Each structure stands twice: as C-alpha cells, then as structure tokens.
From TrEMBL:
Protein name: MPN domain-containing protein
Any Pfam family the entry gives: RadC
Family from the record: Belongs to the UPF0758 family.
Keywords (A to Z) from UniProt: Hydrolase, Metal-binding, Metalloprotease, Protease, Zinc
Species for this entry: Methylocystis bryophila
Amino acid sequence: MKAKTQTPDGMQEAAEPHFHGHRQRLRDRFMEAGAGALSDYELVELVLFRAIPRRDVKPLAKALVARFGSFAEVVAARPERLREIEGLGEAAVCELKLMEAAGRRLARGEVGKRRALSSFIEVIDYCHASMAYAEREEFRVLFLDKRNGLIADELLGVGTVDHTPVYPREIVRRALELSASALILAHNHPSGDPTPSTADVRLTRDIVEIAKPFNIAVHDHLVIGRHGHASLKGLKMI
C-alpha cells in the first residue's frame, strides 16, 4: 500500500514506500563496492528483495541472521527451519535455497574445470563451500585418476548431527567402477569443531587397507568445520 502525500495544489498522490530508496541504495553499494562492503543481514536483504517486493525486509533479514548466525548459515539452513521464521514465505525460502545451490554449483565448477587437483587450497575451498554449513553430517568422496584429475565427486552418505553411516567396501567398489586411482575423503562436523574423532581415524584406516590391494591411494581425509578444517594426513593419522 502506497502512502498518500499532499501536493501544493491540495491534491493527493501516492508516494513510494520509504524502503524503495533503501533497496536501490543497497543494490548500488553492492555493485560498486562488492559483497565485502555489506553486512551479513544486508546480503540477506538483497536475496529477499525479489521474493518480497512490497515490504521492508530489513527486520526479517536481521531476524534470520540472529537466528542462524551468519549469511552462510541462513542460506544453508534446512527449509523446514527457515519456515519457522515468521513472515518468511515459500517464495523467500526458495530464493535462499537457490542461493545455496548457486554457491555449490560455482564451487563444483571451479574444481571441475581445472581437472587436475594440484592445489590443496582448491580442494579445501570446494569442500568448505559444499558442506561446512550443513546441519547434518555428510560424507563425500572425490575420485581421481592417475594425474589427480577429478573423475567424480559423489555424496555417499548423509546422517545425523554427529554420525554418517559409511561402508568402506562400497567406497572401494565405487572407485573400481570409476577406474579411480586415488581418493580424497571429506566429511563435515555440524558442531563446527573439525577435530577428527576416533571413529573418523578408524574409518579412514579401514578404507586405506581395503583400497591398498587394488592400488587405490587415499590421499587424505578432510574434516570440515564451519571456520576451519583438519587433514588426517597433515595430522599424521594416516
């Protein structure tokens, strides 16, 4: 609903809602200075603009960041949790999940287009973008050829907040199907703490032992937290 303003001749005309100017200013700042110039809630506002065109979304954006913690955690939140926020409709939930999907596709494209995974940082960045903010444990495997070229990236398990059922023989069987020469294992800790558990180390060693007779190397097992990671190879646990 547009507000009414009084003109000098006594006629009334509809005025633009106050937040329209704010939206344009925010878009201009984003395009001119980049995402680094905006706070997390302002980035959420930008995502919500299209889904909620006739309402000031700043309070809603602030409520989302307060609830989930950051922009990344807002877009990674499960749809059912997003729907708990008053005022957030299905169109807005869809926009947020689309943003998450775009980020994952972009990260996957960056890894895939290079083919050879020669940079450890590239792998970490990709795994972090893919799973750091997931609310349940996910276990994925990067299958590599003899030149460390990426053959496939597959999510092989989704579990609870602290456990994912993983079967070492199934991982090696899949590696043989793909003619993979090496693997990089990765899973997330939704708690945020990337410290490997005893079970993580035991699982990794089991996969190493089963893969060895087939000349399939396990380059590393990465544990991804929200603000860091752990490398079992770097920690000399494998």
